[in-house]
Amino acid sequence: MIQPGTAWSRFPASFFTTVLPGLFSHGSFPTISQKTRMKNGLPMCSNLPWAALRPTNGISKPRMTQSAQEMKTMEIKKVKLIYFSPTGTTRQVLKSIAEGINAGDVEHINLTLPQGAQPPSLFSSDELAVIGAPVYGGRLPVDAIHRFKQLKANKTPAILIVLYGNREFEDALLELQNLASALGFHPVAGGAFIGEHSFATKDVPIANGRPDSRDIQKAKDFGAKVKDKITALQSLNAQMDLDIPGRFPYEGGARSMSVAPVTKEDPCTVCGTCASVCPTAAISINASVTTTIERCIRCCACIKSCPTGARLWEDDMMKKIAHWLNENCRARKEPQLFGVDA
Ligand SMILES: Cc1cc2nc3c(=O)[nH]c(=O)nc-3n(C[C@H](O)[C@H](O)[C@H](O)COP(=O)(O)O)c2cc1C
Ligand code: SF4
Ligand code: SF4
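# flavin mononucleotide complex -> structure
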């Protein structure tokens, strides 16, 4: 806000709300709409990124007073993509969001594998985290929760993303929001995107091919909007109400089934790819492929990555579930975004 007694207080309020924004209305500087500012509790003059005040056309730069310096907007120095993504759709959407943010420095913290990346001990407030996971039974996968719990943040702004297979995302995004906040992140926006269902095959399609080019464009646009929102902020002190749907206490969760895909001996070349992508180290390779059923979380990474089609479901219940989803989840759902204007 404009402090009395500062250089800015000499200007009438209308200068900030009408004249100055007009000077920069030709798109050279990102601005945030009045609606977004009101929704997110931003001051009405905060659509002026500090850079917009650089001197142009002979208008000299006003001397910054102490309180004006405090009005500096936020800067994103680095984007960190943090994800659990057995079949890769979450990773794909996070990458597209990062493209939209257009930050030079993007780091992947892939927590999918048991021996995956070591999360950094502390995230700082000039980084932007994009945290993503798939939806399992309307909730976050238990293994994703365990791995995310190793993260520690220091008011780091975060975009929260869940990917679901065109059925529903239920409580998963709310669960991610609460988890991220408890770990010290500051959620600034959220999104539920659609990815090809893990149980889908060519013959029993469920949202096959998603995220498609429309989803990818939405993810990029979303990244750009969140960047505008963050760079217009002066601080991350107040929690933002993102209106993320869900119930607490959460309901659902992936059912425990004690099943795992099988390996057909003939087409299997014992290449080891399935073992290398399994998030729970359920597969071991010797002369043939062995699966420890109790460790399997039914993520289908081994099936989708097998180059010869040797991994598949033989379990009747898994086949029934896939057919049910195929018949009942055909109507295309669209990504839902929270914390930005649609
Ligand atoms: C065990 C399990 C449970 C799932 N439950 C849901 C669900 O409740 N709703 C839904 O729409 N999709 C569900 N899916 C589909 C995944 O959320 C979806 O395919 C997602 O895109 C996978 O993300 P990934 O590619 O990052 O692994 C489930 C998948 C698995 C493996
Ligand atoms: S990825 Fe397929 S072919 Fe390779 S070892 Fe596994 S089951 Fe066999
Ligand atoms: S064995 Fe189970 S947990 Fe491992 S990759 Fe295959 S489906 Fe996923």
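# post-check
The first strand starts at residue 78 and ends at 83.
Residues 7-53 form one domain.
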